[in-house]
Design brief:
Elements lengths: L9 H12 L32 H12 L10 H4 L2 H32 L1 H5 L3 E4 L6 H7 L5 E6 L9 H4 L4 H15 L4 H10 L6 H10 L3 E10 L5 E3 L2 H5 L6 E9 L5 E8 L4 H6 L3 H7 L4 E5 L12 H10 E6 L14 E7 L14 H7 L23 E7 L6
Length: about 400
């Protein structure tokens, strides 16, 4: 039904329309949004605060994950095409196998072994993580904040052209193959695969993992860490081409299947001692503001064994109430017996050939102690990824870190 516009209102209406089309002189960063159809409606009512289109960004995540997009989404036509249908069918089979062989076992094990740890772990710190939102949210599903650090570029929300690329689905499948089969990323091959379809960093895979772990993606914003460790907003230009002294990042707002809100932050940073000097240790300063931590480490290439990763190692030891790691995390010798209670799980074998020099005789002694035998670990994790070859160490601080 149409209502005539009184002539006396036309001048005011023209002024309002002109104001809406006037270029803004103030740059205000907005949360990153997914590609959406143009809005053809013209509003004549007083301007209201914009409501974030949470469905649009989640639809991108679902599309990448091979899961249904919502009705009315502008991605529905793409999801109806045979290429996506075949990808979704194959992805569902792969994820069904993964959940049966890993997720269900991790959940059953952690419900018993990590029950008290989970209850006391609102904030998870995951250094050397890459885009691995998958394992950390499976291991600690009830936490509120997850802070991930890796060398991989942050990345941006995929544009429509990227989603239409015929090479997208093979690239995603190749990138996920190692993490679904071995529990860790092959970083170099992942970077090549994603670059081939112009997916420019960790974010696309993090969106995919969020959808596949039954999280609703409600918002994404680009951020950076200032030299004093403060979190600030950033724009996509800085994210794509950060300077050598910049620590770019991304922040995701998620909601779990049970309705729990979560914040996930990923920062692209080299946290070796020397490189930390270039950024004035902004990443470590920020982590120190988060309160007591639970630190999770897996498949970390044994970097915190080395002298030139002492700063991040010291941060973990100083600010964590709990550390859950495989043998590629902090070397056992750094956990002082007076400060930490150690519980061993699984089987300790020599590191794979690539990391043979990181063998720890102390670990062999601990795992062969008949008076305190290791507890069972019913799933594979880390570089020795087979179920009966893997290990985890849970370190509990004797005296909790002060708030």
């Amino acid at each position: 039904m149409r209502f005539p516009i009184p002539q006396r209102l036309l001048p005011a209406l023209l002024v309002l329309l002109a104001a809406c089309n006037e270029p803004s002189t103030t740059k205000t960063e907005q949360p990153a949004t997914a590609p959406t159809a143009a809005d053809t409606a013209v509003a004549v009512a007083p301007a209201q605060p914009a409501v974030p289109d949470t469905a649009a960004i989640h639809n991108v995540a679902a599309y990448l994950a091979g899961l249904p997009v919502s009705r009315g989404s502008d991605l529905q036509k793409l999801a109806a095409q045979p290429a996506w249908q075949a990808y979704a069918t194959d992805a569902n089979k792969s994820w069904e196998k993964y959940h049966a062989s890993r997720t269900a076992k991790i959940e059953a094990w952690a419900a018993t072994e990590l029950d008290s740890v989970r209850a006391a772990s609102p904030t998870i710190f995951y250094p050397f993580s890459g885009p691995d939102l998958l394992n950390v949210t499976t291991m600690f599903p009830g936490s509120q904040t997850y802070v991930l650090l890796g060398l991989e570029p942050v990345g941006t929300v995929p544009a429509r052209a990227n989603l239409e690329n015929s090479k997208l689905f093979p690239a995603l499948k190749e990138s996920l193959w190692s993490v679904l089969n071995f529990s860790f990323f092959r970083t170099n091959s992942m970077a090549v695969n994603l670059k081939s379809v112009e997916l420019d960093g960790a974010l696309p895979l993090m969106l995919l993992f969020a959808a596949r772990t039954q999280h609703q993606v409600e918002a994404v914003r680009y951020v950076q860490l200032l030299p004093d460790g403060q979190l600030a907003e950033a724009d996509s230009a800085l994210i794509r081409k950060p300077g050598p002294k910049t620590v770019p990042g991304i922040e995701l707002k998620l909601r779990s299947a049970s309705g729990q809100p979560k914040t996930v932050q990923y920062f692209s940073a080299d946290i070796s001692d020397w490189k930390l000097g270039q950024t004035q240790e902004a990443a470590l300063k920020y982590v120190r503001t988060l309160g007591p931590l639970t630190t999770y480490v897996k498949s970390a290439t044994y970097l915190m064994h080395k002298t030139y990763f002492s700063k991040v190692r010291n941060l973990v030891l100083e600010r964590s109430n709990y550390v859950l790691q495989d043998d590629s995390g902090i070397a056992m010798k750094y956990f002082q017996p007076a400060d930490w209670q150690l519980t061993y799980y699984g089987t300790y074998k020599r590191p794979i050939n690539l990391f043979a020099k990181q063998y720890q005789p102390e670990m062999t002694a601990a795992y062969t102690d008949k008076a305190n035998p290791p507890r069972p670990l019913p799933f594979g994790t880390g570089y020795n990824w087979r179920e009966n070859d893997s290990n985890l160490l849970l370190a509990r601080r004797a005296r909790p870190v002060a708030e």
